[in-house]
């Protein structure tokens, strides 16, 4: 029995897409594009990033210490101490009898004032600051200078430098400072008040002359009192 053969007609359906643009003929003068310079794969950028990180880490194995900015703590501390010292020395609220015409009675010897000045210098107070504070105590005379203060400091004894403005101004300043701090009068000060009820003489011992019999000598004690060895006249 013969096998039947079926034939099916295949229908062609035209494509609705635009016809493909024919390829242009290749120009022999244009070199072919390099594959590696056109588009980099995503993995290549990751690889490069890793290499850059590794290179950075290698360079930072021994990093240089970063320069530190100069601390302003020292300068601010100095400024704070300076302001604190200025407040401690502010005696403008203290008034002494006789200071309006610069005639306060003095109950410290010249050597006592020098000792107080030296004590402040040992604390770190500058001579310039002391000159300013001492000068501020005058109302009728010119201010003292650093050289005048130094000449006063070069003297010795209870009356050495008694005529200097540094003696008077120094006494007024330190007496106001004592009152501000609430300190009592020292034993030495009370002795000076007893020996000189009207205040210390303002005559420098270097400019004091006495007439004495032959063989007599004059002496000045630590309170600024003058005496002779026997019957000498002052």
Structural features, described:
Residues 1-95, 184-208 are annotated as: Disordered. Residues 184-194 have a biased composition (Basic and acidic residues). This is DUF7726 domain-containing protein. InterPro entries: DUF7726. With 234 residues, the protein is mainly alpha-helical. The protein has one domain. It is built from 8 helices and 2 strands. Strands 1-2 form a two-stranded antiparallel ribbon. Helix 4 packs across helix 7 and helix 5 packs across helix 7 (165-181).
How would you summarize the topology of this molecule?
Elements: H1 35-38, H2 42-59, H3 73-88, H4 110-122, H5 127-135, H6 146-153, H7 165-181, H8 187-195, E1 218-220, E2 226-228
Antiparallel strand pairs: 1-2
Q: Strand order across the biggest sheet?
A: 1-2
> What is the end-to-end distance?
180 Å
How many β-strand stretches? 2
User: H/E order of the elements?
Assistant: HHHHHHHHEE
Uncertain runs are: 8-12
Number of domains: 1
Mean pLDDT: 78
Helix content: 40-55%
Keywords for this structure?
234 residues, mainly alpha, two-stranded antiparallel sheet, 40% helix, elongated, DUF7726, DUF7726 domain-containing protein
Brief summary:
By secondary structure, this protein is mainly alpha-helical. The protein has one domain. The protein contains eight helices and two strands, in the order H-H-H-H-H-H-H-H-E-E.
């Amino acid at each position: 029995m013969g096998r039947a053969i079926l034939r099916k007609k295949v229908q062609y359906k035209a494509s609705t897409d635009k016809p493909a643009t024919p390829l242009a003929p290749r120009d022999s003068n244009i070199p072919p594009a390099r594959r590696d310079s056109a588009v980099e794969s995503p993995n290549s950028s990751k690889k490069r990033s890793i290499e850059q990180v590794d290179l950075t880490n290698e360079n930072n194995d021994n990093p240089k210490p970063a320069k530190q900015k100069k601390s302003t703590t020292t300068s601010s501390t100095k400024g704070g101490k300076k302001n604190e010292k200025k407040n401690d020395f502010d005696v403008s609220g203290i008034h002494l009898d006789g200071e309006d015409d610069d005639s306060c009675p003095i109950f410290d010897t010249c050597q006592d004032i020098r000792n107080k000045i030296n004590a402040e210098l040992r604390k770190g107070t500058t001579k310039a600051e002391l000159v300013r504070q001492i000068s501020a105590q005058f109302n009728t005379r010119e201010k003292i200078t650093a050289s005048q203060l130094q000449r006063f400091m070069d003297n010795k004894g209870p009356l050495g430098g008694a005529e200097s403005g540094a003696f008077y101004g120094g006494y007024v300043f330190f007496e106001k400072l004592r009152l501000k701090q609430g300190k009592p009068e020292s034993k030495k000060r009370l002795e000076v008040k007893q020996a000189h009820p009207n205040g210390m003489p303002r005559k420098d011992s270097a400019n004091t002359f006495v007439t004495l019999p032959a063989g007599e000598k004059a002496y000045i004690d630590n309170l600024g009192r003058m005496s002779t060895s026997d019957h000498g006249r002052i």
